[in-house]
Design brief:
Layout: H1 3-24, E1 34-36, E2 42-45, E3 61-65, E4 70-71, E5 84-91, E6 95-97, E7 101-111, E8 120-127, E9 132-140, E10 146-148, E11 159-161, E12 165-166, E13 168-169, E14 193-194, E15 198-204, E16 208-219, E17 226-235, E18 238-239, H2 246-269
Antiparallel strand pairs: 1-5, 2-3, 3-17, 4-5, 5-16, 6-16, 7-14, 7-15, 7-17, 8-9, 8-16, 10-12, 11-15, 13-14, 17-18
């Protein structure tokens, strides 16, 4: 193999390797989505710790976490309950819906907190003027009993499957929780754990433009973080995001461009 061919092979291996690394470690949120929180508070992941790939067949999901969360962010859109500290929100891009349109999605709530520190998460539908249309989903840290819908929180408007969910206790291993991944405040039976994937469905009554937003917040302190994963947001069965992520495509395109540059140079040199 001559030197030029070695360079071409090296570029190809580098390009494919970069693409694989970007896809495997994708952290960017989809184009058009909006995160309110710190730089580590929102992202895109694949199967990770207790959060498996979602049951809708997607190979990734989006999430928001109180890790690196901002003060005053993540409280319920219906009004703060009183002891929220820091958190994050993640909103989808705006989509159009007709009257009677079916909205569907999956969620998975993960918390490292417990015993008096009732962190919570939620999902809500807003119209394009940022007016709350419906509170769809809530989840809240508790040592026992159902944590979906969250206790002490307003009733939700979506149909949930399962309709109520107890915590799967003792394991909070999930990278979006940062240094708290795998931690359990006050022991593995005090409230830490995860829900597994929960389906939520809702019929939009009025035609218009909307976006879906999730939020998470710490409660009474800023330690032992909590997060909410979201996947498969569809409107009348049509997904509102495309994959792969633009960052991955950009890196792959750069690799192909480099191969083309080397190839043209070789052809000109004959």
């Amino acid at each position: 193999m001559n030197a030029f061919n070695k360079r071409i092979c090296g570029v190809m291996v580098f390009s494919v390797g970069v693409l694989m690394a970007v896809v495997a470690n994708a952290t960017a949120i989809p184009s058009g989505w909006v995160c309110d929180g710190g730089s580590l508070s929102c992202g895109t992941s694949g199967a990770d710790g207790v959060v498996t790939l979602p049951p809708n067949g997607n190979t990734s999901y989006q999430w928001a976490s109180t890790n690196d969360g901002s003060s005053g962010v993540g409280a319920l859109p219906t009004g703060a309950l009183g002891n929220e500290t820091n958190g994050a929100t993640l909103a989808t891009s705006v989509f159009s819906a007709n009257a009677g349109t079916a909205l569907s999605f999956h969620f998975n709530f993960v918390t490292s907190d417990g015993s008096g520190f009732a962190d919570y998460g939620w999902a809500a539908l807003f119209d394009s003027s940022h007016t709350l249309s419906a509170l769809l989903f809530t989840a809240r840290t508790a040592p026992t009993g159902s944590i979906v819908p969250g206790f002490g929180m307003p009733p939700v408007n979506a149909t949930l499957l399962p309709a109520s969910v107890p915590i799967i206790p003792g394991n909070s291993t999930w990278s979006p929780l940062g240094a708290d991944s795998g931690s359990c405040y006050n022991g593995p039976t005090a409230g830490c754990g995860y829900t597994g994937w929960v389906n939520a469905s809702y019929t939009i009554a009025t035609a218009g433009n909307y976006y879906l937003q999730i939020g998470v917040t710490n409660w009474s302190d800023t330690a032992y973080d909590t997060g909410l994963a979201m996947s498969g947001v569809t409107v009348d069965g049509n997904p509102i995001i495309n994959t792969p992520e633009p960052a991955a495509l950009g890196m792959f395109g750069l690799g192909l461009l480099m191969i083309g540059v080397f190839a043209r140079r070789r052809w000109r040199l004959g």
